[in-house]
Amino acid sequence: MTQTWTESFVEVAGGKMHLLTGGIGEPLLILHRDVGNPGWLPFYEHMARRFTVYVPSHPGFDKSARLDWMRNVRDLAAVYQWLLKDLKLASLSMIGLGFGGWIAAEMATMSHHQCKKLVLVSAMGIQPTRGEIMDQFLIYTTDYIRAGFFDPSKMDQLYGAEPNVEQLVTWEINREMTTRIAWKPYMFNQALPILLRGVDTPTLIVWGKEDKITPVNCGERYMQALPHAQFVVLNQCGHFVEVEKADELAKLVNEFISFRNAA
Amino acid sequence: MHLMYFTEQPMSAYPQEEGEKFGYTALLFPNKFFNPVEGSRLYHERLEEYLYAEECGVDGIMLNEHHNAPFCMQAKTNIFAAILAAMTKRVKIVLLGNPLPIADNPVRLAEELAMIDLISKGRLVSGFVRGGGVESLAANANPAYNRERFAEAHDLIIKAWTQPGPFRWEGDHYQLRVVNPWVLPLQQPHPRVWIPGVVSRETIIWAAEHRYPYIILNAPIEESKKIWQLYDDTAAQAGYAAGPEQRGYLIRCHVAETEEKAIENAKQFMWMQGEFTGLTHPLWASPAGYLGEWARKPLAEFRVGRRKQSMPPFEKQLQAMSLIAGTPKQVVEKLRIILEETRPSILALWGNDGKVSHEDSMTCIRLLGQEVMPAMREIGDRLGLKSPFEANAPVSLAYSRKNEAAVAAAL
């Protein structure tokens, strides 16, 4: 099978950003989780059938250069605005996965007309009113990731039962960058629920019912904050929805974005 | 030589089996096992021991600080320092030290330390540390900026001590509208700053660049030699020749009337190393970003539990002389080798730990002060190991340059 995606580096905000691109159609930006982008996932492949999919690695994650001056997730969101300008993507849809969902939500509050449709999957960024967002900094990386799966064998399929040293170092690099920009308050911005009230973008919020990392309650709070949002909770699914329920998530996203296209 | 007494001040009176059950005795080990009545007793025993150490002739009392763990009861080193400032008469109060990065307002530290210096009539040695990973987690200070915060807090404290206020500080990590503390240290230009450490190459270089004595925390002799090579090379690059007055060494050293008793008590040093209870989770000891890039690979393997921390067994440590125990005569012989091999002028003897009784601690202090230390002084004199006080060494590179400039101007 031939590879359907390409890998490149683009210069943004003074650093090289690693970018995966694949597919044909309207632009779709996918923002990865705090543990990094594991590669071209089957879910991306699904999306690439109908969209031109862009999956950048955040600055300081995976192979993207670290931007030492970045101090918070809004800085990161602003860097992505810069990337979109350089890529000449004036209007597009966005999918944010977990930590990437937080970045996408911040971007939506910064530029109300740029994002046509927004999909937030088990997104961080809002403080839960019940429970807490799991603190990765107190536990081993593998335990943290494993906690994100309803079916842990899916984690082994993704990373291998014994992830190699290169993967371990990448997780370490990603954890460092997460520390630099999301240490305190951990994984949320108190202003975000208020700012989201001004976002008209139609939004699909998807959560795994068994998400032990970001409580489902965070999804409910996104739902309350965003004026045009719908909320879908998937059974037998943890935090890594795009891995555990790739087909279902792809179907939901396709239907959600098509609905707008027809309107 | 400058000869100091040290203990971690262990909170040894907690149910050990609970620590074993929990697996770790740091950060998250529940404080319901902290016994305040025992805590009060232990504080008073330590205080009595420090006063006795002064009576027995030690030059300095070394204090430190840790958080959320029973291995060290000093949650604020400046508290014991303040008590000793008032209750002792002669000893240097050597803080190794205040963990700068976890302070949100370093000027408060500058004030506290100035108070200690005034109350002690100029006996403060103000060491600074980065703090362990647990300190960062317990204080919720971002470990990724630990080194930057350390350096900036240091610069701010030195400026607050030496430059007339009011001034404004707009730094990367600290911003203060008005810096104008109305308490300043007695010692001029400022109290001596000593920097302890063991792991980070960056800290050794930083200390050497400032001409601050570096205190090696219990590293083996061969490793210590490498540290001194790095320190000396850095010093040469900075334009001065480093000597014994920049070299400090902390070693676990228990003495008793008999070798048997000393060895038995010295096993308590293993208490904080996890043979009895486990100490800390490797992840908490080094949170992401706390160490340099060099640490990424080993840490990555720690993060998944694939690499384990291992401490050599007690006998091996005795053999390697990273732990010394015996009668005063036996101990002096071993310490002599350390002095000859690594030439420190500052020697901290970590006498007691774990569940060593108050009575045995007092005996240890008496033998250290009255028998071991006098012998060390003789050896130190013979080897020319002059302490920063004896050598009248400048407090820092910045001030040695100022002195040189003043001398040149006078000529």
Q: Keywords for this structure?
A:
heterodimer; A: 263 residues; alpha/beta; 10 helices; globular; B: 411 residues; 15 helices; 15% strand
Describe the model.
The complex is a heterodimer of chains A (263) and B (411). Chain A has 263 residues and is an alpha/beta fold. In chain A, strand 3, helix 1 and strand 4 form a beta-alpha-beta unit. Chain A has 10 helices and 8 strands. The N and C termini of chain A lie far apart (36 Å). In chain A, helix 2 (73-86) crosses helix 3. Chain A has helices spanning 42-48, 73-86, 99-110, 141-147, 153-159, 165-182, 192-195, 216-225, 241-244, 246-262, and strands at 5-12, 15-22, 26-31, 51-56, 92-97, 115-121, 203-208, 229-234. Chain A has an 8-stranded mixed beta sheet, sandwiched between helices. By secondary structure, chain B is an alpha/beta fold. Chain B is built from 15 helices and 11 strands. Chain B has helices spanning 16-22, 36-55, 77-87, 106-119, 133-139, 146-162, 201-210, 221-238, 259-266, 282-285, 296-303, 314-319, 328-342, 358-383, 397-410; strands at residues 2-7, 60-63, 92-99, 124-129, 167-170, 175-179, 195-197, 214-217, 247-255, 323-326, 346-352. In chain B, the strands form 2 sheets. In chain B, strands 1, 2, 3, 4, 7, 8, 9, 10 and 11 form a 9-stranded parallel beta sheet that branches. Chain B has a two-stranded antiparallel sheet with strand order 5-6. In chain B, helix 4 packs across helix 6 and helix 13 (328-342) packs across helix 14 (358-383). The model of chain B has no long low-confidence stretch (mean pLDDT 94).
Global mean pLDDT of chain A: 96
What is the string of helix and strand elements of chain B? EHHEHEHEHHEEEHEHEHHHHEHEHH
Please estimate the helix content of chain A.
25-40%
Distance between the termini of chain B: 33 Å
